[in-house]
Amino acid sequence: MNPLWLSEHLSFNSFPDGDCLTNTNFLLPQVQNEQGIETAVKAIRHYRECINLPFAFETGVNYLKPLKHEIPDGRFVAEIAEKADCNILLDLHNVMTNQVNGRQTVSAFISQLPLHRIMEIHLASGFFFRDYYLDAHSGISNDNLIGLAEGIVRKLPNLKLIVFEMLPEFLPSLSDGDFEKQIIAMRRIWDMRGRNFRVQKKRKNTIHSSGLGNHIPVKDWEYTLGKLCLGQPLLGNDLVRELGDDKGIKIINELIFHFRASAVVSSLKLTTRLLRFSLGEENFNELLKEFFNNSKPDLFPFRVALDFSDFLGSKNPDVPFLEDLVSFEVATIKTISDDRVREVKFSYNPFPVFRSLNNNELPEEQTDPVKFIITIKPDESIEESV
Fold first, then answer.
1. What phi and psi values does residue 317 have, to the nearest 5 degrees?
2. Residue 193 near residue 155 (C-beta atoms within 8 A)
3. Number of domains, the chain
4. Which segment of 220-229, 291-300, 330-339 scores lowest on mean pLDDT?
């Protein structure tokens, strides 16, 4: 692809747990102390050794309240960029989200950054959920964010790219005029880049902090925060108590639940619709919670779906059509993965069931048993179809 630079989030999404590496299914903030800085710098240097490209790290969203004595958000980012001698991907919506939720203000954050290192900016949108503003990529950027971007871009001499982020599922809610408004605003912002640039004075390293925030080892932070965000119990210590009292943890708990649930629902669409219609929404969610409490998150949705199918086999819920339907969708997932042809046997006519579920309706009962076999084949390759 010949990219001009490489970027990655200043976050973590897995942690050592015994002999395993547990994935959180969510980007979590790094501990903001000197050990956190050194860990990030080491990782950046490793990236650059493996891939000979300029590197930029992305400023993340943080739903946690600031710890006492931790390094302020902007200063933490600045120290990493200077020590690693790398660039910054400024996700401006993330920074605004942090401000709305009670962390450092956007103006204070920007004032602490080496502006010449910002080479990419991300814009997005979000919404409020349980009194927290979420970085949800849910629509066009509001006027406040656009105004912030206009002011900041004028000060950036090395900006190379502005990106608008939005999830595909929100596209139908936008009109052509909304999307056009976003693009026009971004083009106007782009034309302002570097107009008010002034050379910044080199900052001295003035980090002198003490207390809980400065003495947390990175491994302890990642393990504790990861376990709490997955809703897993921990023995109490100062860090567990400090983070456990943070309302942001509960928000992350819910976001991880919805993310894991979406992996199951998107991979086993017919199975989960049948369960929801048959059991009811509340009982279906309780079933998901039981599954999540007895399984570890996985980075790949298809693996989560396979684990959920095994879980259903052990639970054996009394739901008509379920067993054969699960077999069908699992076989489909496996065929997509390995291109092998599979046959699935049904003890009923599956096509009325498929139609009902695709129309968001509970399938009607079938009184007469019928034997059906469906053969699942991989999609033809481009070469085969020509």
1. -65, 145
2. no
3. 2
4. 291-300
CA 102 and chain centroid, separation: 21
**Residue 118: inside a domain:** yes
Q: What count of other Cβ atoms lies within 10 Å of the Cβ of residue 37?
A: 24
Over the stretch 314-342, which tens digit does the pLDDT of each residue have?
999 999 999 999 999 999 999 999 999 99
The residue count of the chain comes to 386
| 217 in any annotated domain | no
Return the H-helix or E-strand segment holding 257: helix 247-267
Residue 73 and residue 98 in contact, taking contact as beta carbons nearer than 8 Å: yes
Residue-number span of the structural domain to which 304 is assigned = 299-385
- List, as own/partner pairs, every contact residues 135-140 make where C-beta atoms lie below 8 angstroms and the sequence separation is at least 24, other chains included: 135/61, 135/93, 135/94, 135/97, 136/167, 137/165, 137/166, 137/167, 137/170, 138/166, 138/167, 138/170, 139/166, 139/170, 139/173, 139/174, 139/178, 140/164, 140/166, 140/174, 140/178, 140/179, 140/181, 140/182
3-state class of 252 per DSSP?
helix
Which of residues 134, 160, 190 is at a domain's end? Answer: 190
**Cα angle, residue 39 at apex, residues 98 and 210 outer, rounded to 5°:** 70
- CA-wise closest residue to 278 among 159, 381, 363, 373: 363
Residues 6+ apart with CB under 8 A from 64: 29, 243, 246, 248, 249
pLDDT at 143: 96
Does the predicted TM-score (pTM) go above 0.90? no
